[in-house]
Write a structure and sequence with these properties.
This protein is α+β, with helices and mostly antiparallel strands. It is about 25% helix and about 30% strand. Bound molecules: zinc ion.
Length: about 575
């Protein structure tokens, strides 16, 4: 394509609205423009990259036998009521009425629609397994849309849904998608980790996230280099030392005054006892009543773990009135001794001795408490994992890193097929529920993640497979006839060899051309300058390297093809 003819509105200054690098560079390089909060237009350059990502996804999905469909963006309330998600989904689900007063929503995901399709069309085990996918617009009314297309309200997603006759088949479908995703993200040029994840809003039994490693990532990944264990922060388990002794001490505790000292740091410094010898007692409201949960003073509670282990529908911090009612004391002074509600504790507490807890009355704490002084229903791994904790699998030391989630795969089991009656007849003519899985990729987010992963002060450094162009042919002086003629010839030859080339045929200063080329992150640049040309040479430069290579002008097309092939090898 010709730069002079393309709609590429680049911007020199950093846009004020952008909070992260990818957002800033996508605006500056003319990839996207904002229409409203969390809603963006894709301009030709950005869309070109987006289409390349889509092609990679399609190829890898099709290789695994998945079939592409296109489902509606607008969905009827009735389907969401069947799955009970109309109530549960909350405000992210954008709901509205049509002219006949029927309630509808904009699809944030398509489990309901695809399950409805399959339950109506599939009758027999002979028609299974089935994996249907689409690449389509989604809408989630995020409370705080931010970071451009990274956390937008409207975005492009690839979602796939598998239907199998049994658990074994579902497992195979899951692993097929695991492999397909691995290939997709390798081809997109990502450094990424596959981590165990919580199943969250979608529900189901098991899931993995695909995380692109980037300093600016919003997600924290906990991993072990010894055994390969990796999980997102929500899910990450922690290993505990088994060889420690459990204290049998009892009845040594005594009350001490701690006037106005509520927070751990305050109590710790007032009593001159380190936070790891304090125990926090947190009171929660849940669907199974009020509970108390204990965790060491220097650690944070992982509410997802509590919710999963106790199979709770919901969990939220108790309000002050509830705390007063169940403990007898105000917020900040809760402790386990004498409490009548069910207590659960992080396993750290098992091995603690002579610790500090709240006194269940105003301005009072208890020192020298021990686990025999109160009754705990059960000890679990309930804390948020962090660097330096023990690996749950091999007991080596855990590390953490930051990432951006680009893909997520779930084993759904029978959740939707039961709720919506997706059944088939098996070999023996018996009616059975289909076993489902669902698999998502944030397509538009992939571009942002790629930019977050690699960039410099001059702009994006995009992987060759998803950059808007593979090569920029750049004649330095547009009024120099020989340069322009050679540039045109190289450009046409590259196109003929199926290289995705851009020619910068604009009549602008060389500095502008170089700057735009770097900003747009085009992986290879062929520079045609008057001086080199006199000796029969042109230059080729990789976006991520400082030095350029001088190459004979008659060899440039062949060498460029080699470079592109090398860059796209994965
Ligand atoms: Zn390990």
């Amino acid at each position: 394509m010709r730069f002079s003819k393309m709609f590429i509105p680049t911007v020199k200054e950093d846009p004020k609205e952008a909070e992260v690098i990818s957002h800033r560079l996508m605006l500056r390089a003319g990839f996207i423009r904002r229409l409203a909060s969390g809603i963006y237009t894709w301009l030709p350059l950005g869309l070109k990259s987006l289409k390349k990502v889509e092609t990679i996804i399609r190829e890898e999905m099709n290789k695994k036998g998945a079939q592409e469909i296109l489902m509606p963006f607008v969905q009827p309330k009735e389907l969401w009521e069947e799955s009970t998600r109309w109530e549960k989904y909350g405000k992210e689900l954008l709901r509205f009425y049509d002219r006949n007063n029927r309630e509808l929503c904009l699809g944030p995901t398509h489990e309901e629609v695809v399950t409805d399709l399959v339950r109506k069309e599939v009758r027999s085990y002979r028609e299974l397994p089935l994996n249907l996918y689409q690449i389509q617009t989604k809408f989630r009314d995020e409370i705080r849309p931010r970071f451009g297309v990274m956390r937008a309200r409207e975005f492009v997603m690839k979602d796939a849904y598998s239907f199998d006759v049994d658990e074994e088949g579902a497992e195979k479908s899951y692993m097929d998608m695991y492999d397909a995703y691995t290939n997709i993200f390798k081809r997109c040029g990502f450094r990424f980790r596959i981590v165990e994840a919580d199943t969250g809003q979608i529900g189901g039994s098991f899931s993995h996230e695909f995380m692109v490693l980037a300093e600016t990532g919003e997600d924290i990944i906990i991993y072990c280099d010894s055994c390969g264990y990796a999980a997102n922060l929500e899910r990450a388990e922690v290993g505990y030392q088994q060889d420690k002794e459990i204290s049998a001490k009892k009845g040594y505790y005594k009350k001490v005054e701690t006037p106005n000292k509520k927070r751990i740091e305050e109590v710790s410094s007032f009593l001159n006892i380190p936070p790891q010898l304090l125990v926090k007692t947190i009171i929660y409201n849940t669907d199974r009543g009020v509970i108390g949960v204990l965790v060491r003073g220097d650690r944070d509670m992982n509410e997802t773990k509590i919710k999963n282990i106790l199979s709770l529908e919901y969990i939220e911090l108790a309000d002050e009135a509830t705390i007063e009612k169940v403990t007898g004391g105000p917020l900040g002074f809760s402790g386990p001794i004498g409490l009548k509600i069910p207590l659960y504790a992080d396993r750290d507490i098992l091995y603690m001795e002579d610790f500090v807890v709240g006194g269940n009355e105003k301005d009072m704490h208890i020192i020298n408490a021990n686990i025999s002084d109160f009754n705990v229903e059960a000890f679990f791994d309930l804390k948020i994992a962090k660097d330096g904790d023990l690996c749950p699998r091999c007991k080596a030391t855990l590390n953490s890193t930051k990432g951006i989630e680009v893909g997520h795969i779930f084993k759904l089991g029978l959740k939707y097929s039961k709720a919506m009656g997706a059944k088939f007849l098996d070999k023996n003519g018996e009616e059975k529920y289909m076993v489902m899985g669902c698999y998502g990729i944030g397509v538009s987010r992939i571009i942002a993640a790629a930019i977050e992963q690699a960039n410099d002060e001059n702009g994006m450094i995009l992987p060759c497979s998803i950059a808007p162009f593979e090569v920029d042919v750049l004649p330095v002086n547009s009024s120099h006839r020989d340069s322009m003629e050679l540039a045109e010839r190289i450009y046409k030859d590259l196109l003929a060899k199926r290289i995705d080339a851009l020619i910068d045929d604009r009549d602008v200063r060389p500095g502008v051309k170089f700057k735009d080329c770097d900003l747009m992150g085009i992986p290879l640049r062929i520079t045609i300058g008057e001086k080199n040309l006199k000796d029969g040479f042109v230059e080729i430069k990789h976006r991520d390297k400082k030095e350029s290579l001088k190459i004979k002008k008659e060899d440039i097309v062949g060498r460029t093809i080699e470079h592109v092939e090398e860059l796209k090898r994965w």
